[in-house]
Structures are given as C-alpha cells and as structure tokens.
Design brief:
The protein is of the alpha+beta class. The protein has two domains: 83 residues; 123 residues, Immunoglobulin-like (Sandwich), CATH 2.60.40.4070. The chain contains three helices and twelve strands. The strands form two sheets. Strands 1, 3, 6, 9, 10, 11 and 12 form a seven-stranded antiparallel sheet that branches. Strands 2, 4, 5, 7 and 8 form a five-stranded antiparallel sheet that branches.
Length: 213
C-alpha cells in the first residue's frame, strides 16, 4: 500500500515538473521570437511559414493554438512599424519612369555590366520620342542619374516620362537594366502586409524595393 502511494506521488511530481518546463520553454520562445521580429530586416522579414515552423518546436505549450491564430496580425503590426521608418527615403524599384515637377530633379538608375562603353540615357515623352540624351559613366555596377527636365530644345518640361539606357560591348549596342527611383511618402496598412505609397503616386509592397538609396 505504501509503495503504491509513493509511486503515485512520484508520478504527480514528474508531471508537474514537465508542465513547468514546458511553460518556461514557451516563455523563452516568445521572448526570443519577439526580439527576432523587432530586429528583423524590413526588406527581408520573417514570413508566417517561418514563424509557424519555429512555433512547432514548442507545440506542447498551453495556448499555442491561440498564438497561431494571432501571429499573422502580430507580424503585420511589426512590419508596419518597421515600414514607417522608411518614410522620406528614396528607394530603387523595377521600372523606367521619371517624373519632373517642382524643384526636385527626377532620378533614375541602371546597371552597367563589366566592359560596357558609350553608356547613355535617353528620355522619352509619352509618344516615345527622345527629348533628352544624357551621357553617362561607363563604371560597372548600379549607377544613378538625375534629370532636371531640360530637353534637347533647352526648355524645361514638367511631366511624366520614361527612359532607356544603352551601352556598347564587343561592337554591339544593347539596352541595360533600368530601375525607377522614388521617395516613400507613407505606409498603408494591409491584411497581407503593409504597402508603401510613393511620391510619384505608385503603391508597392516591401519586397518590391531593390535597395534604399
């Protein structure tokens, strides 16, 4: 009788120890996860799949099911706060648009391969006609340029334009990869992740940013 009682008490103590260990493990996990989310790169944030994978390691923690249901909203709020820190910064995205207006020159960017020469930017109007040609450096890598709206006739021309960049290599002339440059004007909350409104009127997601200038 005494032996049976002793075994029961031991079993109860073991269960309590395991429960406390699981709770402590959950607390440590949540503390580390929140720290990781706060310090993540806003241009390369953790996605829900990554977080779910990490949470699976502590699936015995009480209340983990509820945490799964709210984690998406938590991630979204953290990403919105991080995206807010980008307001007012110039970013490079895919595209070839230029907007001239006010006192701020338009900016664009392009990538120059090794060995490229005779690099130049051609600005085109909405009809596709070249209205300005800008000689550029042959330096390889990502390069930026500015255009104040002055055309080949010498007249400033406020408005929206596109640009192409060409260069010569091995006797052949070809188009280079172009990027639009715009300024982040604000952050728009969205259930699937924050969106960024640009000064030029476009709305993009965080992953559309190639680099911050």
């Amino acid at each position: 009788m005494s032996k049976a009682t002793s075994a029961s008490a031991t079993g109860s103590g073991t269960a309590s120890f395991k429960s406390n260990s699981a709770a402590e493990q959950g607390d440590r996990f949540l503390t580390l996860l929140v720290a990781q989310l706060k310090n993540q790169d806003p241009l390369n944030p953790l996605d829900n799949a990554q977080v779910t994978s990490q949470m699976a390691q502590v699936s015995t923690v009480q209340g983990i099911e509820k945490l799964n249901g709210t984690m998406g909203a938590m991630l979204n709020q953290i990403q919105i706060m991080q995206a807010g820190s980008l307001a007012g910064k110039d970013v490079m995205i895919d595209g070839n648009g230029l907007t001239v207006g006010g006192e701020t020159p338009a900016r664009g960017a392009y990538e120059v391969p090794q060995g490229m020469t005779n690099v130049k930017v051609e600005v085109r109007n909405t009809q596709g006609a070249v209205i300005a040609t800008l000689a550029q450096s042959n330096t390889s890598g990502i390069q930026t340029f500015t255009w104040d709206g002055t055309t080949t006739t010498g007249k400033a021309a406020p408005g929206n334009y596109t640009f192409t960049v060409t260069g010569t290599a091995g006797g052949q002339t070809g188009n280079l990869t172009t990027f639009a440059v715009d300024r982040i004007a604000g952050v728009i909350p969205n259930a699937s992740g924050p969106r960024l409104s640009l000064a030029g009127g476009s709305i993009i997601s965080l992953d559309a940013i190639k680099t911050i200038l």
